[in-house]
Amino acid sequence: MVVNLARSIGRAILDFALPPRCPGCGTVVAQVHDFCAACWTNLDFLGASGCETCGLPLEATDAAHCGACLAQPPRIARTRAAVAYDDVPRDLAIRLKYGRKVALARTMARFMAPLVERDGADRLFIPVPLHRWRLWNRGFNQSALIAKELSRRLGIAADPQALVRWRTTAPLKGMSISQRRRAVSGAFRVARPTAVAGKTVILVDDVLTSGSTAEACARALRRAGASRIELITWARVIRPSHLS
After folding, report:
1. What is the full DSSP assignment across the chain?
2. What mean pLDDT do residues 79-100 have?
3. Are 205 and 171 in contact (CB under 8 A)?
4. Whether residue 168 is found in the same domain as residue 53
5. What global pTM score does this model have?
6. What percent of the chain has a predicted confidence (pLDDT) above 90?
7. What are the tens digits of pLDDT across the range 150-201?
8. Residue 221 and residue 226: Cα distance in Å, rounded?
């Protein structure tokens, strides 16, 4: 009781000295990881609607699946993203990845967690990996930070070592979709097949653009025996202009 009281007092003092701020613009907000009203209105939350497989928004239709998924079902059985990629989501992703604002991983995970299904299956979070040279240069994998936070929130195990990017790839920005697919083909391997065999693997990434990287990861996981593969991201590109 005394310890809890001390913690409450300490938290109140800290909030007074360092009040919670909007992750988007820095405005003081009521709670940590809350967005201010202005940034909130600039976020396009995607939720669980859209194509039941790839999560792509479906407008003016009652169809459960998009035409592309019906024509050729992807390796990834379920894809969901918290928000559409635009100015505010892009800024958060850049500040996490390059600005070392690692607390933003918690902000992202907060809005991603409700989109993760928990159906009792043997599920495992696996972050999309960085090549070891890029990891050493940056110091952390932003997707692994998000996966760790999702694991903490949902009680689903995370394994950042199961999947590795064994071959370096050129930056995908500016490439066409076909170029992206060729660039990442064969770039991923499962380091411990027993860790994924028979499990539902939930890939975790910060931004989904063309889906080429996630598909390459899914291919390696399928070969290693994963029974089902899903994908959860903070943001996804809806407008083609944001691919470049």
Report:
1. -HHHHHHHHHHHHHHHHS--B-TTT--B-SSTTPPPHHHHHT--B-TT-S-TTT-----S---SS-HHHHHS--S-SEEEEEEE-SHHHHHHHHHHHTS--TTHHHHHHHHHGGGS---SS-EEEEEPPPPHHHHHHHSS-HHHHHHHHHHHHH---B-TTSEEE-S-----TT--HHHHHHHHTT-EEES-HHHHTTSEEEEEEEEESSSHHHHHHHHHHHHTT-SEEEEEEEEE--SGGGG-
2. 95
3. no
4. yes
5. 0.86
6. 61
7. 999 999 999 999 999 887 776 667 766 777 777 677 778 999 899 999 999 9
8. 6
* 137 and 76 within one domain: yes
59 and 10 both lie in a single domain: no
CA–CA dist 51, 64 (Å, integer):
6
Q: Which amino acid is at 39?
A: C
Given a cut of 70, is residue 219 above it in pLDDT? yes
Q: Mean of the pLDDT values across residues 210-230?
A: 94
- Which of 231, 235, 240 is CA-nearest to residue 83? 235
- In this structure, the answer to whether residues 152 and 225 fall within a common structural domain is yes
The Cα–Cα gap between 23 and 34 comes to 7
Range of the domain at 188: 44-243
- The total of other beta-carbon atoms located within 10 Å of residue 136's CB is 9
Q: Into how many domains does the chain fold? A: 2
Q: Within this chain, do residues 32 and 120 fall inside the same structural domain, yes or no?
A: no
